[in-house]
Amino acid sequence: MTVLDSRPDVPGDHNPIAAPGALLTEAGVSMAPVEDLGAGRGPFWLDDWLRANATDVLAWRRHIHAHPELSRNEYATTELIVSLLRRVGLKPWVLPGGTGVVCDIGKGERCVALRADIDALPLTEDTGLPYSSTTEGAAHMCGHDAHTAILLGAGRALAGAPELPGRVRLIFQPAEEVMPGGALDMIAAGALEGVERIYGLHCDPRLEAGKVGTRVGALTSAADLIELRLTSPGGHTSRPHLTADLVYALGTVITSLPSVLSRRVDPRSGTVLVWGAVHAGQAANAVPQDGVLRGTLRTADHEVWKALEPLVASSVESLLAPTGVGFSLDYRRGVPPVVSDAESTALMRAGVEAAVGEAGLAGTEQSSGGEDFGWYLEHVGGAFARLGVWSGPPAPQADIHRPTFVLDERALLVGVRTLVHTALASLA
């Protein structure tokens, strides 16, 4: 398959899209466009840009999909983003770590930011798509390839606008899939300096393409990691009284800590502890000397999140004290909850309505999933929304983070229009 980009390279600029097996080549476009669900809604320059470049957006997404890169290793993706932005006269800069891109469009004191994440997951794809991942053990099964292509489209469309009422900052963030997340790298590098609001989209396979779900308040939860290591002298299972029964102690924490927390925090906070891994011992008749327990602790309440670490530490100590088992607790704070403020959400809803009409507006549920966009909202106001990528019945709903996740590419153009109109509404 040969798809986009047919524009000449910037002189002296390395062309990252000419790699062997790339879907993007200098030969031009040979792929069918998809329906633009917001066609004709304006502004005229956005309609014109999408008529001429809609297949570019699809091609960028398919190329990135076929060439995924894991967190903080997104070097080729970063190079591609820089190249495509430079081709329209923009001046992007790369984070000190070599991955991640920031780029301003327009002039003026006021500045709003639009963010996309660019990293892939350590999964093996099983979709059968002709542009499936060519990288072993890495795949875009969370839609970050779509997020990146959408922001590239929005940025290049905005770069062609006759005039903007202020500046729009594009933030192409690395390492969203690891905790505490690449958003902290962006913030440390100054990506939020001068920004008054920030917006982002995330693919949602439960919403139909053409719809965007918004919510005032908590959209995702804080997500922390817990690793508990236990130690015991070990011994024979026939004489547990002569040692410290490590497996029993593990079981005590596994069953009791979630119950204790449910009685120590406000149940309206959506706090939930779930264990994901437990390892101890080999022989049925031997008390092991060490074991490990790992899990995630999530909450939608910001104040509860701040109080959880000392509460977990004191609860673990109390539960294990009668067992005689030694322990070390590694509590790793992950990401804060994503909490969209009312004003920013209203501006984003106005952007959605301008992009695809009132029928495109949808509500959305609060999720226990984590998303490091929350770090940005610790510093500036903003809103995060869910972009419908489901084709509708009878198509199955393939959830994110699964090897079979697919999306309706009509959503890419909806995303471009939504980000452009949200930025314009926010700067108006």
From TrEMBL:
Gene3D superfamilies: 3.30.70.360, Zn peptidases (3.40.630.10)
Name of the molecule in the record: Amidohydrolase
Phylogenetic placement of the source organism: Bacteria, Bacillati, Actinomycetota, Actinomycetes, Pseudonocardiales
